[in-house]
């Protein structure tokens, strides 16, 4: 079964990982988010996903980038097989 987080869930996870409180995630904070979501990827995979998620290439993941990438890539617990 795939559990789809709601927008509120995502915001909670995002805020919890946003240690700097600047409403964007650096690579380290992004890896915390993945932990919270139950996604266990190795460092290289995390880096790759981070680059995919950083749509405007500013080196940070904003909340809108975060939600967008979760939707388009289907990154939810148990749903990784289809994400490639
Ligand atoms: Ca960005």
Summarize the SSE layout with pairings.
Blueprint (H helix, E strand, L loop, with lengths): L6 H11 L6 E2 L1 H10 L6 H11 L7 E2 H11 L11
Helix pairs in contact: 1-2
The chain binds calcium ion.
Account of the 3D structure:
The two termini are 17 Å apart. The chain has 84 residues and is mainly alpha-helical. The radius of gyration is 12 Å and the shape is globular. Helix 1 packs across helix 2. The chain is built from 4 helices and 2 strands; from the N terminus they run H-E-H-H-E-H. A two-stranded antiparallel sheet has the order 1-2. It has one domain: Orthogonal Bundle (Recoverin, domain 1). The relative contact order is 0.19. Bound molecules: calcium ion. The site of calcium ion has 7 residues, from strand 2.
Proportion of residues in extended strands: under 5%
* Strand element count: 2
Question: For the terminal residues, how far apart are their CA atoms?
Answer: 17 Å
Total number of helices: 4
For the record, the CATH architecture stands as Orthogonal Bundle
Shape: globular
Helix content: 40-55%
Q: What class do helices, strands and sheet pairing give?
A: mainly alpha
Summarize the structure.
The chain is mainly alpha-helical and about 80 residues long. It has helices spanning about 5-15, 25-35, 45-55, 65-75, and strands at about 25, 60.
List keywords for this structure.
4 helices; Recoverin, domain 1; mainly alpha; 84 residues; disordered C terminus; binds calcium ion
């Amino acid at each position: 079964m795939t559990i789809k987080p709601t927008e509120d869930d995502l915001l909670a996870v995002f805020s919890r990982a946003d240690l700097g409180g600047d409403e964007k995630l650096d690579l380290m904070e992004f890896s915390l988010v993945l932990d919270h979501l139950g996604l266990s990827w190795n460092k290289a995979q995390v880096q790759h996903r981070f680059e995919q998620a950083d749509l405007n290439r500013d080196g940070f993941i904003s909340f809108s980038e975060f939600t967008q990438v979760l939707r388009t890539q289907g990154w939810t617990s148990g749903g990784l097989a289809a994400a490639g």
